[in-house]
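Technical annex, item 7. During the second reporting period the consortium partners agreed on a shared format for inverse folding records so that results from different sites could be compared directly. Each record opens with the tokenized structure and is followed by the designed sequence. A conforming record, contributed by the partner at site C, is shown below for reference.
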């Protein structure tokens, strides 16, 4: 009865309850694309031509771990 759910090429967004600045995303979550995991961020926007729309950004989950490891490592 323990069937594993295949979440490849799917994800979810949730309201960002920690938003303190206008530049922070309105929605955040995780998404899987071709077997790779990403953080997904979304901003609600408005334009005269398109009306309301969502602007999206993906960040590889490994990138944040790598960036913090790079900043603490000795460059020499």
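Designed sequence (site C submission):
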């Amino acid at each position: 009865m323990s069937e594993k759910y295949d979440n490849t090429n799917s994800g979810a967004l949730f309201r960002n309850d920690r938003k303190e600045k206008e530049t922070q995303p309105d929605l955040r979550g995780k998404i899987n694309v071709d077997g790779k995991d990403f953080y997904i961020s979304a901003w609600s926007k408005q334009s005269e031509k398109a009306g309301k729309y969502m602007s999206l950004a993906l960040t590889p989950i490994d990138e944040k771990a790598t960036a913090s490891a790079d900043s603490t490592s000795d460059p020499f």
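The mean pLDDT is 86. Residues 14 and 54 are 14 Å apart (CA to CA). All partners now use this format for quarterly exchanges.
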